[in-house]
């Protein structure tokens, strides 16, 4: 299994536009072969009693993905809806950092 954590930082005031594009694409990603999870997240206001959390910031979106294999993830990266997403949001993003992880068990 491959885990992906994508940290997308929007230009100021552009986060909602990116979120709108992402929310439209989530069902397409989830329908792809090998997709286990595709979740779009932002900072929570408060997480339980942990009031000392470090926030990513109001312009940041975290996408959490799980894929059955690297082959499935690679197929996703060239899917038409992914290419369409990037054609719309590239100019809205200030930065994008992607982490690829594997389970230790």
From TrEMBL:
InterPro entries: ABM_dom, AI-2_Isomerase_LsrG, Dimeric_a/b-barrel. Keywords: Monooxygenase, Oxidoreductase. One of its GO terms (molecular function) is monooxygenase activity. Pfam families: ABM (PF03992). Residues 2-101 form the ABM domain. GO terms for cellular component: cytosol. It comes from the Bacteria. PANTHER family: ABM DOMAIN-CONTAINING PROTEIN (PTHR33336:SF3), QUINOL MONOOXYGENASE YGIN-RELATED (PTHR33336). This is Antibiotic biosynthesis monooxygenase.
């Amino acid at each position: 299994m491959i885990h992906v954590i994508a940290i997308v930082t929007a230009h100021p005031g552009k986060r909602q536009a990116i979120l709108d594009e992402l929310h439209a694409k989530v069902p397409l990603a989830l329908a792809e072969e090998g997709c286990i999870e595709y979740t779009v997240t932002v900072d929570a206001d408060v997480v339980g009693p942990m009031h000392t959390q470090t926030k990513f910031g109001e312009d940041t979106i975290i996408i959490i993905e799980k894929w059955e294999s690297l082959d499935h993830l690679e197929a996703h990266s060239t899917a038409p809806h992914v290419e369409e997403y990037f054609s719309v949001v590239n100019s809205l993003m200030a930065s994008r950092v992607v982490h690829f992880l594997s389970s230790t068990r």
